[in-house]
């Protein structure tokens, strides 16, 4: 009798499970975090929690290596094989929206009211994507270096001016203690160049494209401010302040930690690992070259593919993922800046007084998103090449003029990219 | 005629071995660096790159990078996929390309030379130029599976194998080799009443060992190093090959030790395959004058 009752209970439970599974509509999701164990564990946990929290949708995740993720998505879009939910790098989002890979994100925008600006992906007046975190860049330094060189510690309220920054590099160079005074990170090619270095240009008063129209780069990438930036940029390498484009990636990773570089321009993602090896590490705000201190913004965000037949289900998952506990889990796990102040308060690194709290403030105060245009994808590559050429000694004005021509030609070829 | 001076001969031999040793060192050092680095922690690995220590098993050595590589990525899945895709492609390619070459070398049919010229012309077309049209094609192709007709080949082994079975270089290698074989053998077999299939399978192919080895090695390298094609046609991890898998190790802060451990693991099958066939490979290269 007892055995029969147990079997009946088991059968009932199985029926229930089968019933729930059958009722759930499957949503496919692609994510860029393959190979990152911590990131994969957290995103899988969110997916599991979501699937268990309701009976309408079941998200199935497929992870891709970050370096090849964009190529995989573009190929899948061509083959008509996109998933329901995509994650997309912030500056690339307008291109994917314009190309028809994404559809507007149907979520209640009051949910993201207090999210950092860089985590919200707007294109053409509509929200297409939203991120659980942002990234920020700071000037890494040792407190002991600042003291030995007799330098003022810059603050968010009073960052170094361009002159103070160069005086700091001069002092480091003159001390003879360092192989290079400044490591901007020339070994990190690709998106690092526009993300990390275009804020210097913007602080000089230039930009990659004219944001008032998004129809040209003329005047902003080759105007007086841009030329001043280019000459400063070239001087960093010509006068031996910084390692050039031939920098070994190994030196990029270890040069500052080993004490061979006095200052390093680096992101918050490297902060925890560096803190473990450098006792008196401090994160300094970007210098102000005349038009305010700037750093880049916008990291990976979630969106709904244009071909999804269940945008409401995809949006339900994205809204579910935006909970503070997940923002905090990602931040604690991979060191990125949580999107909200309330989530920051839950983290070990970004809570008030936390070792990386300064990055949250930097992101809030200094961040400027990269140009919000589908043409950014091409403009970024042109900008990267121009900066590398200038670093290698090319004529500044000619190089910037050529870059403007290339960017403008691309904009014209694409009929203004829908602006 | 001048006689050979033993002293000069010794000197010449010494110079020759010295030059060969230098060349061997140049080719071996990257492999030695990769293997040695795979046993070192990241910081030591990076610090050693500036000195000869990079090539020596010194410092804090362990299998930690290998353990972490297996935790980071399904290494054996990638290796298994690459071996399946590479093995099947090589086998099918040797069969079909040799058949095609047999036809070009021994059969007389209208338009033969034109077709061969067209096939050889494909050698100058870079794969990148046809990748997207090919992607669009395979994403719509039918396949008869266990559940009836399926549409689209994406996320399968066949999409990584079938487009690569026939290629101009392999056909060319076989054609060149077959043309150098004594045609009397084929004529004698015909007189004896052998069919073309019998001539192919019992007369020509048993003599084709060197070119089979050469074609197999070249095809193996092409297939084992596939990156772009699997990247765009395979979205599921369970079908990814080793080169796409390598991307798993390049994170925001690259774990170089794990990269070296992974590279060491995926290089082993290539070395084994090459060493197994190298004698025939060298013989074939020497006889055909073809350089891979």
From TrEMBL, chain A:
Pfam families: SBP_bac_8 (PF13416)
Record keywords, A-Z: Periplasm, Signal, Transport
Lipoprotein is among the record's keywords: no
CDD domains (UniProt xref): PBP2_TMBP_like (cd13585)
Signal sequence, renumbered to the chain: 1-23
PANTHER family: MALTOSE-BINDING PERIPLASMIC PROTEIN (PTHR30061), MALTOSE_MALTODEXTRIN-BINDING PERIPLASMIC PROTEIN (PTHR30061:SF50)
Family membership noted in the UniProt record: Belongs to the bacterial solute-binding protein 1 family.
Protein name: Extracellular solute-binding protein
Species of origin: Chelativorans intermedius
UniProtKB/TrEMBL annotation, chain B:
Top-level division of the source organism's lineage: Bacteria
Residue span(s) of domain ABC transmembrane type-1: 79-277
The keyword Membrane belongs to this UniProt entry's keyword annotation: yes
Keyword tags: Cell membrane, Membrane, Transmembrane, Transmembrane helix, Transport
Membrane disposition: Multi-pass membrane protein
Main subcellular localisation: membrane
TM segment ranges: 17-36, 83-107, 114-137, 157-178, 199-222, 259-277
Compartments where located: Cell membrane
Keyword Transmembrane helix: yes
Family: Belongs to the binding-protein-dependent transport system permease family.
Protein name, per record: Carbohydrate ABC transporter permease
Lineage: Bacteria, Pseudomonadati, Pseudomonadota, Alphaproteobacteria, Hyphomicrobiales
